[in-house]
């Protein structure tokens, strides 16, 4: 998101997140490491303690009603300590749901099935599934090619089998990586691209699910 070398600052209200935009604050363990190549070699209790600090000690700010619009957790693939810690720490306040991201190939689908099972056992509602890198749209002819072939039907087949909403598919686009590297909004800089249209459709579906009365 273009904030690799940022540092965390303390105030009377706690740690201040790094603001990528006026309405988007970020907190990451990477901000606390001595350099970009340092590994985080922590056992479960220390990782769990840091997640708790991110929730308790960060001054996330709030809107006029004293509430954040959204708080998002970008968790690593799989079902590790981090996932369980987030679920346990937010049990009282409640978790709106999980958006699960996969790619079309079977090795990714198998991991995602385990994540779905984790969410169901932990009582976390599943908002839906997004299939990333679902194809490549040629910028010259607008033809689409499958880079990662879905041998078992990909995310859509899995969602139909497990009765989970399929939120959408995002095609490969090198501009997404560039936008992330520079911390710019891909939807704003490449508004006419098929990937931007896919993002907007997915965002609209998520908002309809989590804000049904708006």
Largest sheet, in brief, is: 4 strands, mixed
Parts with pLDDT < 50 across at least 5 consecutive residues? none
Number of helices: 7
Percent of residues in beta strands: 15-25%
Overall pLDDT: 84
Question: What is the CA-atom radius of gyration, in angstroms?
Answer: 19 Å
Fraction of residues in helices?
A: 25-40%
Characterize the overall form: globular
Number of strands: 8
Terminal-residue CA separation: 29 Å
Along the chain, the helix and strand elements come as EEEEHHEHEEHEHHH
Class from helix and strand fractions: alpha/beta
Can you characterise this structure?
The protein has 214 residues and is an alpha/beta fold. It has seven helices and eight strands; from the N terminus they run E-E-E-E-H-H-E-H-E-E-H-E-H-H-H. The protein has helices at 44-56, 81-89, 106-122, 154-162, 174-182, 186-189, 194-210; strands at 9-11, 14-16, 18-21, 24-26, 98-102, 126-137, 144-145, 166-172. Helix 1 (44-56) packs parallel to helix 2 (81-89). The longest helix has 17 residues, at 106-122. 17% of the residues are buried. The model has no long low-confidence stretch (mean pLDDT 84).
Task: Give the tags.
214 residues, 7 helices, 8 strands, alpha/beta, single chain, two-stranded antiparallel sheet, globular, four-stranded mixed β-sheet
Annotate the secondary structure layout.
Layout: E1 9-11, E2 14-16, E3 18-21, E4 24-26, H1 44-56, H2 81-89, E5 98-102, H3 106-122, E6 126-137, E7 144-145, H4 154-162, E8 166-172, H5 174-182, H6 186-189, H7 194-210
Parallel strand pairs: 5-6, 6-8
Antiparallel strand pairs: 1-2, 3-4, 6-7
């Amino acid at each position: 998101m273009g904030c690799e070398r940022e540092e965390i600052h303390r105030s009377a209200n706690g740690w201040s997140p790094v603001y990528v935009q006026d309405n988007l604050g970020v907190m990451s363990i990477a901000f606390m490491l001595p350099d970009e190549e340092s590994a985080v070699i922590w056992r479960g209790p220390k990782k769990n303690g840091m997640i708790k600090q991110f929730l308790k000690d960060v001054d996330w700010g709030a809107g006029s009603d004293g509430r954040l619009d959204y708080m998002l957790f970008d968790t690593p693939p799989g079902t590790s300590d981090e996932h369980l810690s987030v679920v346990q720490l937010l049990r009282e306040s409640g978790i709106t749901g999980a958006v699960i991201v996969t790619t079309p190939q079977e090795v990714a689908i198998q991991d995602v099935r385990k994540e779905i099972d984790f969410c169901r056992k932990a009582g976390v509602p599943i908002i839906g599934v997004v299939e990333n890198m679902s194809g490549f749209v040629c910028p010259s002819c607008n033809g689409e090619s499958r880079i990662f072939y879905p041998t078992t039907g990909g995310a859509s087949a899995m969602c139909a089998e497990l009765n989970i909403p399929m939120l959408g598919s995002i095609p490969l686009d090198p501009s997404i990586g560039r936008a992330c590297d520079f911390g710019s909004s891909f939807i704003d800089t490449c508004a006419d691209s098929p990937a931007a249209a896919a993002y907007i459709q997915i965002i609209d579906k998520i908002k309809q699910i989590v804000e049904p009365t708006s």
